[in-house]
Amino acid sequence: MTKLSLALSALAVGSASAFSMNMKADTGANSRRDILQKGAAIATVIAAPAAANAYAVPDLLYPFEALEPYIDAPTMKIHHDKHHATYVANINKATEGKEEVDILELQLNALEAGPVRNSGGGHYNHAFFWDEMAPPDQAAKSKISPELEAAIDKAFGSVDEMKAKFEAQAAPGAVFGSGWVWVCVSSDGLKLVGTPNQDNPLMKGVTDEVMYPILGLDVWEHAYYLKYQNRRPEYVSAWWNVVNWDKVSENFAYVSEKKAGVPVRG
Known about the structure:
This protein is mainly alpha-helical. Helix content is 53%, strand content 9%. Strands 2-1-3 form a three-stranded antiparallel sheet, sandwiched between helices.
C-alpha cells in the first residue's frame, strides 16, 4: 500500500470516528450538515485521480531579451510561454491517468504512441533547445571541448565546415516546412540530421538508427518569423552567436559515456 493510500485510509478512519462522536454529542441540523459536507470532501479526495501535470515548461536560464539582437525578446516569450506550453499541455492530457514516465524515455517509441509523437517530441525538443543557448557575451566565451572538436574534425573536416553543412541542412529546401536540424552521435561518429515537425533522432524509425542529439536548431517559423520573416538562412547564421559550446560539449561527453539521450528539465 502506498503512503498516499495509507494517509487517505487514516483520514477516512479518523473522520468516521469523528462523525460517530459528533453525532452523539450534537444532533442539531447545523452539526449534521457540517459533518456530511466534511464526509463528501473526504470522499472526493479519495476518488480523485493522480495529478495529470507530470510535465512542465522549464524556466529559461536567462531573460527573454538576453539573446538579443540575434533572437528577439517577443519571439522568445511567445515561443516559450505559448508554443512550448501548448506541447506540455497536450502531452499532459495524452498521458493523464497513466504511469509517469520521464520525457526522455517517451521518445524511443513515440512514433507508435499517437499524440506523444508531436506533443512529447515538442516538449523534449524545446527543453533541449533552451538550455543549449546563452546570452551572446557568454556564448562567445564558451569553448568546444578538445574531444568534441576532434569528433567534428573527423566527421566534417573542421568546425567551420560543420557549420556550413549544418546551415545547408537547415535551409528551406532541405527541411521543407517545419522541423529541426541536429548534430547527433551515431554508431559511426557525428552526423547531421534534419527531422520534420517535432520528430527527433531519439525516436525509433525517424532515421536509419536511433541517434543522440548534442546540438539542435528549431526551424519552425514561430522560432524566427517576427524578426527574420522568410529569411530563415539569416536566422540560422545568426543563431551561432548564442550557442553555448560549453553545454554542447557537456552533451557530447554525456552521450559518449552513457550511450543515451541528454536528459532535459521539465
